[in-house]
Design brief:
The chain is α+β, with helices and mostly antiparallel strands. It has two helices and nine strands, in the order H-H-E-E-E-E-E-E-E-E-E.
Amino acid sequence: MKTFLGGLTVVCLALFVWAGPDAANGGEDPLVKTLLSNDGTYRLTLEFSGAELVVRDLFEVGVRMERSDGGKADLQLAFDARMPEHGHGMNREAEVSSEGGGTFAVSNLLLHMPGLWELYFDVTEGAICERAQFSIDLD
């Protein structure tokens, strides 16, 4: 019995090492995030550049947007990031460019202080605007 449990431990450890850290957190890539807008109308897939988000490092976000119901739409995107506990946002103005087909590149992003940041993705379809957002705490 001791040999069986020891062998099982080795196999489990080997599988963890082989699969890497993403398998340990459910297979999610920490730099790819899927969000729903606050009313659930739009689904956004975000892909962050670089290995991780770091204070005072420029980064970009690729954004793929679609209607949650699968319908076709002409969508526009605006971006902002703020520190609600400090009452201010970024020192730079985000640049949003459409790449067609509901895909956007958001660049010139720099979170200049450690602390809690909220990232806002405002999706506009016609006269309707819905926000998708999430918080990140940077050390």
